[in-house]
């Protein structure tokens, strides 16, 4: 049973470039979450979807961040334009329904130079 | 809003010893879930154990058990017979039950080091 799949595993890019992070949730899971992990702020929820619909995006830090879920098996998190302070590990997680535990992908380590 | 506090930034014990990691939380909710996640150097987030607030019985998973004190809003993790592979960051997390705020609120983590 495949877990949550994130790509790329590492991304290094220059300030000002567009960054796209990708996530494939576990098949059958109808909740998808994006988190960011930094040393200063720890793990923070950015946005989550239920049945492909964004439910709560209050954690998205700025308008430079956007997330989409065009279908049940794919989601993207975009940063445009990227800044050095966006450097972090970004996790995607999915969940199979009410009150079930979340399963995390391996994360994308993003470095903005 | 919920808050989760882990007061021990780092702990170190010898292999085979028992260690307890502390977690306290603040919420006005009556129904919720609490979790412990392990993050080894590989960066994966691995679910260790889960507790439902309405269940009085403490959850156990092999060498891992919790001490859940609802009135005190305390949720500690006990690791028995610790192993080198237990070395990792451990995060305590809160999730409100039911719909609405479905994301996890995490503590800042405890770095656990198991010494040979």
Q: Span between N and C termini of chain A?
A: 37 Å
Principal-axes shape call of chain B:
globular
The chain pair forming the largest interface, with residue counts per chain, is: A-B, 25 and 25 residues
Tell me, rounded to a whole number, the average pLDDT of chain B.
93
Number of helices of chain A: 0
Q: Which range does the strand content of chain B fall in? A: over 45%
Order of helices and strands of chain B: EEEEEEEEEEEE
The percentage of residues in β strands of chain A lies in over 45%
What Rg of chain B, in angstroms, do the CA atoms define? Answer: 14 Å
Which descriptor suits the 3D outline of chain A? Answer: globular
Oligomerization category of the chains in this entry: heterodimer
Regions with little confidence, pLDDT below 50 for 5+ residues of chain B: none
Can you walk through the features of this model?
The complex is a heterodimer of chains A (113) and B (116). By secondary structure, chain A is mostly beta strands. Chain A is built from no helices and eleven strands. In chain A, the strands form two sheets. In chain A, strands 2, 4, 5, 6, 9, 10 and 11 form a seven-stranded mixed beta sheet that branches. Chain B has 116 residues and is mostly beta strands. In chain B, strands 2, 5, 6, 10, 11 and 12 form a six-stranded mixed beta sheet that branches. In chain B, strands 3-9-8-7 form a four-stranded antiparallel beta sheet, with no helix packed on it. In chain B, strands 1-4 form a two-stranded antiparallel sheet. Classes of the chains: A mainly beta (113), B mainly beta (116). The A-B interface holds A 31, 33, 35, 42-45, 48, 50, 55-56, 59, 89, 91, 93, 95, 98-99, 101-104, 106-107, 109 and B 33, 35, 37, 42-47, 50, 52, 91, 95, 97-99, 101-109.
């Amino acid at each position: 049973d495949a877990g949550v799949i994130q790509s790329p595993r590492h991304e290094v890019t220059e300030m000002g470039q567009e960054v796209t992070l990708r996530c494939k949730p576990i098949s059958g899971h109808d909740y998808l979450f994006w988190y960011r992990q930094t040393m200063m702020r720890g793990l923070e929820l950015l946005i989550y979807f239920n049945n492909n619909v964004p439910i709560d995006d209050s954690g998205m830090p700025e308008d430079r961040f956007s997330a989409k879920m065009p279908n049940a098996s794919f989601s993207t998190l975009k940063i445009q334009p990227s800044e050095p302070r966006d450097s972090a590990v970004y996790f995607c997680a999915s969940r199979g329904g009410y009150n079930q535990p979340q399963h995390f992908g391996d994360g994308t380590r993003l470095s903005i130079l | 809003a919920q808050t989760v506090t882990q007061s021990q930034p780092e702990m170190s014990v010898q292999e085979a010893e028992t260690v307890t990691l502390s977690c306290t939380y603040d919420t006005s909710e009556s129904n919720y879930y609490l979790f412990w996640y392990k993050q080894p150097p590989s960066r994966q987030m691995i679910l260790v154990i889960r507790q439902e607030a309405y269940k009085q019985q403490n959850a156990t998973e092999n060498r891992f058990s919790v001490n859940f004190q609802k009135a005190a809003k305390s949720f500690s993790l006990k690791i028995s017979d610790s192993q080198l592979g237990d070395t990792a960051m451990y995060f305590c997390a809160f999730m409100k039950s039911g719909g609405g705020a479905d994301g996890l609120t995490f503590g800042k983590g405890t770095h656990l080091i198991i010494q040979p």
